[in-house]
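Troubleshooting: if your tokenizer reports a length mismatch, compare your output against this known-good record of 199 residues.
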Amino acid sequence: MNHPLASILALLIIFGTASWSWAEEAPPPVKVLVTYHSLSGNTERMADAVAEGVTSVPGTLAVLKRVGQVTADDLFSSDAVIVGSPVYWSNMSGEVKTFFDNWQFKFGVFPEFKMKNKVGAAFATGGQISSGKEITMLTILAAMLGNQMIVVSGGGAFGASATTEGDSPGIDKKELADAKALGRRVADVAKLISRASAQ
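Known-good structure output:
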């Protein structure tokens, strides 16, 4: 017959281990969708840097996709969405506008506001210094605000941006650093909101 003390010790080890495993279990990663439209490759380079900034924050996952490849599951399973566009006629490109239109007509975000309280941010590339990069980012953020998202900036007043033509040598190290800073800020804010929601 086993000694009673041995049984108690076995129980303590079992429950102690179970308790330790539960306490040490990592929370699911915060998922950040980085999506963009790019013809020349400039906006894609910025998107890569944004995603790099996201993954530099522990406990985060970056999903990098072109706007035309984003699915409803990509959108709704993300904690944050960062959208990038080249400047076309001082505004977002038609592909990015169609992406936002698809939130309603293809993905059905309204009337339930399925994107509510997710973090949103923007980045843009334009040929010239005054080509409309700020307007492009503001129209992206306006679409997010209309969906009751929580918008943040980073890498600049309205988001990260890059000048790619004229006197510019193309996207430089500072502009890529701004894109990474935007990714980090969005990941940090999304983690804070995710933790608060879990409590």
